[in-house]
Batch of 4 targets.
Target 1
Amino acid sequence: MGATEEHLVRLGLPPCRWAFPPAERADDSGLVVVGGDLAPETLITAYTQGLFPMPVGRRRRLGWWSPDPRGIIPMDGLRISRSLRRSLRRYDIRVDTAFADTMSRCGDPRRPHGWITPEFIDAYTRLHQMGVAHSIEAWTDDGELVGGLYGVSIGGLFAGESMFHHAPDASKVALVTLVDILGRTPDALLDVQWLTPHLASLGAIEVSRRDYLTRLRRALGSSTPEFDRGS
């Protein structure tokens, strides 16, 4: 049984109705194929094969991507500045207490190139209810959600999807917490899809698609981290 089938069976999901092309068939932009759906079994199959979904083109059709190079954050590579260390004491960090709210704020329509539609929120909330998708949240002392991130956890893979902040360093503090959680798992892989200057400043690097897929296979064979629920 391959990694994809193993994780589908573990989650009680049927086989995916779609046959994804190999990630290596991506075009120069990283697009592998267009179509499919956002069913749980489709998403799990895609992530375990090195793909992730994002709309493409003016018609916003569902695209499946595998960029080369790929952005990741090594478990020992996160850069924590002095100011960020101070910010770690500024916020109340919670896990999975406001998943849909966190994802909705990541998809704020005022943000450029926004792609987190209600359909995406519904799909990933289903994964969250299955214990596969998680949010790390930064709250103020008076109970205001001011930053966070969300992503998909399968074995030792955490596919980071998006983050937001409405207060200084709030999303960065959530990222520090995520790396601490993942760091307890051998061969953990924190995927950030494309490298941006912001992510590079935090220690993200680029690896080749081939390297990424090798790391992915190891991560999928590892244990799933424990995400402490609640606060």
Target 2
Amino acid sequence: MNEKILIVEDDERLAELIAQYLIKHGYTITINSRGDTAEAAILSQSPDLVILDVMLPGKSGFDVCRDVRANFHGAILIMTASEDNIDEIIGLELGADDYMAKPLEPRLLLAHVRALLRRKESENPDETVTPQSEKLKLKFGELIIDGENRKVTQNNDVIDFTTAEFDLLWLLASQAGHILSRDDILNALRGIEFDGLDRSIDARISRLRKRLGDDPDNPHFIKTVRAKGYLFLSMDQA
């Protein structure tokens, strides 16, 4: 295993508890307690995963996430003590891959960590075996989704997606014409069942729509199916 995780958390006791728990499960851990030094630590250490608190001295976790995202290709898990869903939405909008609210349940945190790192490992270009589905290019009119190169173009313009956003888009598009529930999506992307409260999928769907220029009231690509989930429209449904 030996994946590297950087914990950015100013609560020393909480950071140490998280660190000891993850060390026990085979991860290499470093801790940073300030937002204004976190970006340099992330870029110099190149961890596989950053567990990033929102409320930090010197610079907020949101600002760190935004500023580091373009140059950091590992996973970012945002955590916050706020119960307001807006924190989750902001974090995902800024490029975070996942979100958890405090207080953290250790086993659930470990499940999130493992799922994020599995996803990263599957994207490793040194992998000798590439799933057949990842070799495909999906085409929906002027929208082309290249699974092998993880590239999206629309009207010949390249659209930038975060790792989590591309994974969600690929999942929906590869199942075009079939409704996927939030539970289906979470199981496919994170291996964690939908608990009825997790709104990260809704926030990511909203972000996909913005990037694709898709109107939720008159969608060309992603349709919300009331009480069921989301449907990526095939050409004959659009």
Target 3
Amino acid sequence: MITKTKKHKLVKEFQTHDTDSGSAQVQIALLTQRIKELSAHLRKNPKDNHSRRGLLKIVNQRRRLLKFLQRVDEKAYNTITRKLTLKKFKKAVLSVDAEKRVEKNAEPK
């Protein structure tokens, strides 16, 4: 569990303005800390399937927030992935040729 002081430090480090406590950057930082702590717990307790399920839910929530941040503010996305040393997602953008192929294949013959 994240202590109050750790949480306060993370919020201070990643907040976008003085009263910010719930932006995507802050949520991603807090979720990353929880993921680290749960991963350490699961290394000690490999049969704890309830915690494993919770970890998977947290990882997916962070993934969705990262994709949102990448779509909305690429600069903030790059900054937070660098600070937290997270893998970057590839942008899922179809090229013009790929869009034409998809449209062509969708037509009935």
Target 4
Amino acid sequence: MNNLCRANLILAILAALPPLAHILELPNKLTLESSLWLAVQQHLYRGWGPFLGGPAEIGALITTVALLVIRRERPQTRLLTFMAAAAYTAMLITFFVFNEPVNKAITNWTPATLPSNWTDYRLRWEAGHAIAALFSVAALAALVRARMIERGE
């Protein structure tokens, strides 16, 4: 179980890093003019989701569910682990509700074809990452607390 816990905590940290980075970028990204924002979306972020975000989030969810099975007879750690699994599930749902539609929409945009409501897309994309950051931090905190309880037993 120790190796699973270590792997889980590493994946939990990796799952939290991208959405937290987006939170740190948020004030500056909200000041970008339309064509620069589009260039950032289409070029800077290309490949990050499949490379780090998606695998880390899915890995964190899978290892958390595995820990949930192992901890099913321990009420304190079971509840915390369930909360983390629920947060990872909500994090993935948030991506598909907020971020993925924007990613798909902007794929073929150019500065000349950018819709007049492009700021709505920007807000939706940033809100998705902000919500994901909250879920990832909640999951990480629950997993760390569960591990601390186990180590104290």
